[in-house]
Amino acid sequence: MSQPPPKDELLIRINLLAARWVVLFWLAGWYLKAGFYFPYLVQTTRHYPVAHPLFPEFFSSPYVATVFYFLPLLVVPILSFCGRGFVWVAAVLMALSAAVLNLHINTCNDATFVTSFWVALWLCWFTSQAGRASADVRRHARFLAQCLVGVIFLGGTVGKLTPEYWDGEVMGRIFIVQTDQSPAGKILRHLSPELQKTAATWISRSVIGGEALLALSPFFPYRLVAVLGSAVFVVISIFSTWRIFSVLACLMGMLLACLLLEKSNNAGSQPEDQI
Questions:
Q1: CA angle at residue 120 from 271 to 252, to 5 degrees?
Q2: How far apart are alpha carbons 240 and 178 in whole angstroms?
Q3: CA distance 161 to 17
Q4: Confidence of residue 263 (pLDDT cuts 50, 70, 90)
Q5: How far is the C-alpha of 4 from the C-alpha of 267, rounded, in Å?
Q6: Kind and range of the H or E element at 263?
Q7: Which DSSP category does 31 fall into?
């Protein structure tokens, strides 16, 4: 069996490097709130089980939630192997874990598992194609990433188009009054109630505007989406809480990895139908 040309081999290695980059960010976001989830899943859900007729027994069992929360830890030893097949297995494991926790009664309210599922699904596709040096693969990967970000933030934008969000009431109550996890909230508490309300209003509208821009991601150049998306993620964390990166880390990893793929196209790979 003939070996791929050196340039093609380099591009395939870049593909696998990008995939591992996504996995790293994905795991970082998944376990960012492990300090909460470990006692919650191991102790609280077992001592105080929740039942609802909408959820079958499998998706109500605290043991199922615990197993699938920690199952992605197997990804770490899997990634120590270099083969593309091992990375694909890791991606499937990640997608399966996120799918189960999205449907489980104890974890279905956390958006961490929503974004993690879609990024893992994107990774399943990308790793299945990562052995090809075609520029088309990297182009499609970038566009799919843009579409994924657009759909996720379209939902977030529509959900915030309410009077309570637009006038800052929700943001003010959550991130100024009710929590001390917001870096900006700690500063805003020292302001008068009138200034707090004004600041909360414009912060809320800025967040809605930033998410609306990200909802239009498929229509922008990829590099702009990667830079704008990363900037919006950081701003959101400043005005809300660093824990929001449990939701955003996998998206940021995917955008940055695709930025690496965009640069690799400058190596001169041709579309597959021209090779």
A1: 80
A2: 11
A3: 39
A4: low
A5: 15
A6: helix 245-264
A7: T
C-alpha triplet 74, 28, 111: angle, nearest 5°: 100
Q: How many CA atoms, within 13 angstroms, populate the side-chain half-sphere of residue 169?
A: 7
Rg (CA), the chain: 21
The predicted model scores a pTM of 0.86
Given a contact cutoff of 8 angstroms between Cβ atoms, the answer to whether 119 and 148 are in contact is yes
Q: Residue 236, exposed/middle/buried by CB under 10 A (0-12, 13-18, 19+)?
A: buried
**What does the DSSP 8-state code read for residue 274?**
G
Give the C-alpha distances (Å, rounded to integers) separating 43 from 15, 48, 205: 41, 9, 39
Q: State the average pLDDT for the chain.
A: 84
Q: Write out pLDDT tens, residues 29-65.
A: 999 999 999 999 999 999 998 888 889 999 999 999 9
Indicate the DSSP class of residue 131: T
- Where are the strands (E) in 105-170, listed by range? none
CA distance 198 to 224: 30
Are residues 138 and 19 in contact, defined by beta-carbon separation less than 8 angstroms? no
User: What is the distance between the alpha carbons of residues 3 and 18, in angstroms, rounded to a whole number?
Assistant: 22
Asked if residues 123 and 27 have their Cβ atoms less than 8 Å apart, the reply is no
Q: What is the DSSP string of 223-237?
A: HHHHHHHHHHHHHHH
Contact 131, 84 (CB under 8 A): yes
Tokens 């109500």 -> residue? 60
* Cα–Cα dist 94/75, whole Å: 8
The CA distance from 117 to 113, in Å, is 6
Q: Which of 86, 75, 129 is nearest to 272 (CA)?
A: 129
